[in-house]
Structures are given as C-alpha cells and as structure tokens.
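PROTEIN DESIGN WORKSHEET
SECTION A - STRUCTURE
LENGTH: 240
TOKENS:
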C-alpha cells in the first residue's frame, strides 16, 4: 500500500472507503480460498492483511516492508501478524502485492524476488493503478513509475514465470469523474499551476459510507465481469 496515503489518512485508514472497498474486491477475487498464512509485501500498516484475518481467509500474516523502523509481532482478533523488513524464505501459499509494483523500475524482478522462493501452486494477488493516460500529480506525489492496463499486468506476470488466473478492473464507478479531474490536473501540472499531491483525502462519515455502499454494489455486480476500465487493475497469478 502507499505509505504516503497512509500518512494522510492516519488512524482512519482502516475505515476509509478506498481501503474498505479495495479489501472487499480482494476478498471477492480470492473467493473461497483459504491459507494458513499470507505474506503481504510492501504492507505498510497491514490493513489488507488484517482484512483477510477478519474474513478467515488467512489464520496468520507476515507483513514485509523495508520502511519499518523496527520489527515486531502483534495480534489481531487473536491471530498473529509479524512485521518485518525482509524475509529469507517464502513458505506462504498466498502473497499480496497491493499497490507495490508501480513504485519500482523493474517490476518483474521484484515480483520474482518473492515468487521464485514460493512453493508451486501458490497464489499472488497484485493491484496496480490503471491506464497511463490517467497519469497526474497524484502519481508523481506517490512516486509511481508507471500505470498499467490488464494486458501489461498479464505480460508482467508471465514474464515472471507465473500463470494468470484472473484479471479485472475495479473502481469503475469513479473512473469517468476521476479521468476528467486527472486530465485537467495533468495540464495544470505542465503549466506549473499546481503541485504534486495525492487525490485521496479524508471524507465525511456520510460520504465515506455512501462510497463504501456504492463500491459494495460494484464489487458484487460489475467487478466479476469488468475487463474494460477502472482506476485499479486486479490480477491473481499462480506459480505453476
């Protein structure tokens, strides 16, 4: 997850519509799969790992992020989460890479860094920002290297030696409005009339609730079949 956005939202990150909705999509695309332990790469506070623990999809989690000031272990709902800067082995059958690969120059290399050490038949769930034409001050602020299409993500997955299980777009409901805003911001940025900043902000309780409800509907009805557009690409890959 993007640590800069986590800093903006603070303690509200776990209840913010963006992370709640993305977590709903994560659980939807995983279906009824369960694992003993998950590995969350670039996890930040571990918001998505906690959601999987709450849903019973995993019974424990390892969150890895080189930005942790110290390594520690805590419990969430009676289940263990270990926070560490690096891992030597990858025994987990499920890896999360939620908004991580867009931050590095060599996305295939980072993906292989973990999946090459993963057991056969393990799964990786990837999310990345969608469509390069949506590039804006938001991406510059978050230090993204690129935005993706489904085809680009699927090629990256195959180049890493993995098989594509599923790929879809999410946040389609917001896409038309966000596209207009991002294109305007892009022009203003070129003219140096605005500074780079995140488009994610704290919302009022009412707006937060409405956006969660709207994306719950999208998650149930549109997300399972959406191969066309959205703000985020989801991909599930399997190690053969």
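SECTION B - SEQUENCE
RESIDUE ASSIGNMENT:
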């Amino acid at each position: 997850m993007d640590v800069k956005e986590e800093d903006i939202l603070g303690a509200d990150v776990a209840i913010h519509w963006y992370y709640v909705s993305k977590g709903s999509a994560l659980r939807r695309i995983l279906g009824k799969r369960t694992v003993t332990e998950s590995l969350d790469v670039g996890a930040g506070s571990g918001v998505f790992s906690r959601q999987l623990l709450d849903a019973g999809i995993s019974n424990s989690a390892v969150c890895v992020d080189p930005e942790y000031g110290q390594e520690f272990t805590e419990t969430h709902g009676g289940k263990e989460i270990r926070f560490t800067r690096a891992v030597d082995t990858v025994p987990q059958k499920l890896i999360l890479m939620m908004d991580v690969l867009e931050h590095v120059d060599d996305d295939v290399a980072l993906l292989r860094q973990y999946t090459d050490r993963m057991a056969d038949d393990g799964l990786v769930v990837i999310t990345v920002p969608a469509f390069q034409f949506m590039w804006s001050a938001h991406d510059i602020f978050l230090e993204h290297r690129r935005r993706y299409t489904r085809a680009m993500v699927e090629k990256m997955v195959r180049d890493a030696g993995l098989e594509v299980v599923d790929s879809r777009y999410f946040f389609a409901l917001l896409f038309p409005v966000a596209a207009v805003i991002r294109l305007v911001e892009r022009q203003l940025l070129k003219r140096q009339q605005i500074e780079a900043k995140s488009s994610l902000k704290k919302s009022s309780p009412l707006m937060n609730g409405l956006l969660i409800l709207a994306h719950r509907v999208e998650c149930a009805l549109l997300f399972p079949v959406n191969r066309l557009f959205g703000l985020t690409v989801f991909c599930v890959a399997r190690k053969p």
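SECTION C - NOTES
The chain has one domain: 3-238.
Residues 3-238 form a domain with the Rossmann fold fold (CATH 3.40.50.150).
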